[in-house]
Structure formats: structure tokens, C-alpha cells
Specification:
Blueprint: E1 27-34, E2 40-44, E3 51-56, E4 66-69, H1 77-81, E5 88-89, E6 95-99, E7 110-123, E8 126-127, E9 130-135, H2 152-164, E10 175-182, H3 183-201
Length: 203
């Protein structure tokens, strides 16, 4: 029996073992941790690569899209330089939201996405950008190339989610979105996070 190449004898770590994408920074892979149907925030455990429960959602807000990260990226020094109000990067892989027409209710899947824009988010002084992409070959959104090709209501819903998903009643919010940016800046952010990863972990 012949195995396909490349073939993983063991399950690869989602952050370090998967490829960043076929044509980064434009086309990237997205590893999905949370779906729009989840009321619990799941997050990849950085040591094991398995999905763990981070916390129940604190409010009634649900993620408006698929939400995960781009493998082999790192929010470090280069990325933080693109975010003037951030002191440093948050040290995590670069987050991505992926828009699709058909509901996808399963997490721990890999999607091929086209980058169209993003949010310059700062969380407790750390750069925590959120890239927005569309599912490649999607029947409705597959040809979108700019954040302006998405409905303003959807972009605002995403923005509202990230401004509120960490809110704790009675405490001051230390999360802000400084800018909603288009594809041109989003590509710089993705490239910076790839270079940050290569410096920290090697190519």
C-alpha cells in the first residue's frame, strides 16, 4: 500500500505542524477553533495541540463567523509595529475569522481562505489583530477580495463581538479596535506574523 505524500504518521500540531497556506499572505489555511454555534470559547492547547475549553462565553454574544488561527504565524515584534497603540504582540498565532455561505458547525477543521481585511485590535496593551477571510470557492463569498465586498452589517457584527466577548460586568474594558482595515494592510499583518514565527520557531 502506498501512502500519499506528504503523509503524517502522527497527528500534526495545528499551530506548528500544518502549512500556513498555498499562497500566503493572500491565500492561507485557517484552523477553526470556534463555530457560530458555540457558547463556549475553545482554544488550542499550545503544548498538546488538542482543543481545550478556555471559558464559557461571558455574555449572550455568539461568534458571527468561524473563528480560529493561521498556522505557523506568531504575533510578535513585527506585527506589534503595525499597531501603534500596542506595546507588544500577544504571543499567539494570528487569529482569523472566515466567512462562508453554508453553515459549518464543526470545529477542528482546516479551511482554505482568501484574506480580505481585518481589525487592529489591542487587548491589555498587546496587538491581537483579527484577520477576516472568505472561504475559498464559496458560492457567495468566494470572489470577495476586499472587506468592502462584505455587508457592512456583518463587519459591524464581528467588530461588536470582539469588543464585547471579554466583557466582565462592573469592570472596565481593556480591549479596543483601533482600525478596520482593508486587504492591503491585512496582507502586511499576515506577512509580519509569518516572519515573526520564522524568527521564533524557524521556517
Amino acid at each position: 500500500m502506498k501512502f500519499p505524500k506528504p503523509f503524517y504518521k502522527w497527528r500534526p500540531h495545528p499551530w506548528h505542524g500544518l502549512e500556513v497556506g498555498k499562497e500566503p499572505p493572500i491565500f492561507v489555511n485557517a484552523y477553526i477553533e470556534i463555530t457560530p454555534f458555540d457558547l463556549v470559547k475553545y482554544e488550542v492547547d499550545k503544548q498538546t495541540g488538542y482543543l481545550r475549553v478556555d471559558r464559557p462565553q461571558r455574555t449572550s454574544s455568539q461568534p458571527p463567523s468561524l473563528y480560529g488561527f493561521i498556522p505557523r504565524t506568531f504575533c510578535g515584534e513585527r506585527l506589534s509595529k503595525l499597531s501603534p497603540k500596542a506595546v507588544k504582540g500577544d504571543g499567539d498565532p494570528l487569529d482569523i475569522c472566515v466567512i462562508s455561505e453554508r453553515p459549518i458547525n464543526k470545529s477542528e477543521v482546516i479551511l482554505h481562505a482568501r484574506v480580505v481585511g481585518g481589525f487592529q485590535m489591542v487587548d491589555h496593551g498587546e496587538a491581537d489583530d483579527k484577520i477576516i477571510g472568505v472561504l475559498e470557492n464559496d458560492n457567495i463569498w468566494g470572489k470577495a477580495e476586499s472587506i468592502n465586498d462584505l455587508p457592512k452589517a456583518l463587519v459591524e457584527r464581528l467588530r461588536h463581538y470582539f469588543l464585547t466577548y471579554k466583557l466582565i460586568h462592573g469592570e472596565e474594558s481593556l480591549t479596543s479596535i483601533e482600525m478596520v482595515y482593508d486587504r492591503e494592510h491585512a496582507l502586511k499583518v499576515v506577512k509580519a506574523s509569518i516572519d515573526d514565527y520564522e524568527e521564533i520557531y524557524g521556517g
